[in-house]
Amino acid sequence: MRILLWHVHGSWTTAFVSGPHEYVVPVLPDRGPDGRGRALTWDWPASVEERTPQQLADEDFDAVLLQRPHELHDLCERWTGRRPGRDVPAVYVEHNAPQGRIADMMHPAADRDDLLVAHVTSFNELFWDCGTTPTRVVEHGVVDPGLRYTGELERAAVVINEARRRGRVTGTDLLARFAGVPIDLFGMDAAALGGIEDLPQDRLHTEMARRRCYLHPIRWTSLGLSLIEAMHLGMPVVALATTEAVEAVPPAAGVISTRIDVLVEAARGFIEEPGTAAEAGRAARAYALERYGLERFLEDWDDLLAEVISDARGARLGAR
Questions:
Q1: CA within 20 to 30 Å of 88's CA: 31, 61, 65, 312, which one?
Q2: Residues 164, 189: contact at Cβ < 8 Å?
Q3: Confidence of residue 167 (pLDDT cuts 50, 70, 90)
Q4: Residue 70 covered by a domain
Q5: Neighbours of 201 (CB within 10 A)
Q6: Residues 6 or more apart whose Cβ sits within 8 Å of residue 137
Q7: What single string gives the DSSP state of each residue in 225-279?
């Protein structure tokens, strides 16, 4: 298959382009949000090719993956000359939980008989109203960074991109309530809050794994891939019991709760008891490999894309 997709979420895209297909990502001179091209801090295979908007019109695709409303409603057709879902088989990948008055919100791809919405978590599918548009859930998968956990530093690692801007959504404000728990914040713009930013993914994983535990304070998100990556690294987890985290973190892998005092106690416990932390980290890794492994992720996507392409062909034949 030859698949068009925009480089929107680096970690998710890294997993997706690890499959056996050909992948095309748009590129712009400034490598802005609509044309990031190939990743600069992730290791992508040669099967990922860059194309300018001018070149896309002459390219053939078996399917297009859409991840943002303006890709669906404008960008794809303007750059390729093809309407997604009608001229080329299309899947809208929904990475995020809905924001705003949820009871009144419709998904931007709602009520479309020519698309399929693929949610990355069951929580997403539960909360988004897609109307009559068919939906599926393809849970996350990540490239296994390997068991790197040493826990040598008596500190908790937190990964939040744009922590200051996203504030309460990412639980940035909660970090101050973890009194007595030394925290190292990683992510884009983390330096503004005294953290560590702009580490290449491989080094980030190594640095995370040196910390005694992983803290996930995010209130409202689909499911942060950094949490799954931390589990793959062999890190014990302390997380808010919100959104999909209640499915992702089994009891043996750490502690989840909506009570901050419970999470503070858990983080302190892991920091003070390295043996307990290592044991929980081993359980976290075993669970992550089974549920969020790359092979399962790629197989699920192959099945879904084959279904969408087959249905599109059937619809075209039926229209003749």
A1: 31
A2: yes
A3: confident
A4: yes
A5: 17
A6: 118, 119, 120, 121, 122, 124, 125
A7: HHHHHHHHHT--EEEES-TTHHHHS-GGGEEEES-HHHHHHHHHHHHH-HHHHHH
Q: How far apart are CA 7 and CA 132, in angstroms?
A: 28
Residues 84 and 28 in one domain: yes
165 lies in the same domain as 58: no
Tokens read off for 31? 């490598």
Q: Give the structural domain span for 102.
A: 2-141+294-319
- Kindly report, residue by residue over 68-125, the tens digit of the pLDDT: 999 999 999 999 999 999 999 999 999 999 988 888 889 999 999 999 999 999 999 9
Type of residue at 26:
P
CATH, residue 85 = 3.40.50.2000
Average pLDDT value for residue range 276-287:
98
Long-range Cβ pairs for the range 106-113 (8 Å, 24+): 106/130, 106/131, 107/131, 107/133, 108/69, 108/72, 108/73, 109/66, 109/72, 109/133, 112/85
129: in domain: yes
Q: What are phi and psi of 112, to 5 degrees?
A: -120, 125
116 contacts 89 by C-beta, under 8 angstroms: no
Per-residue pLDDT tens for 197-228? Answer: 888 889 999 999 999 999 999 999 889 899 99
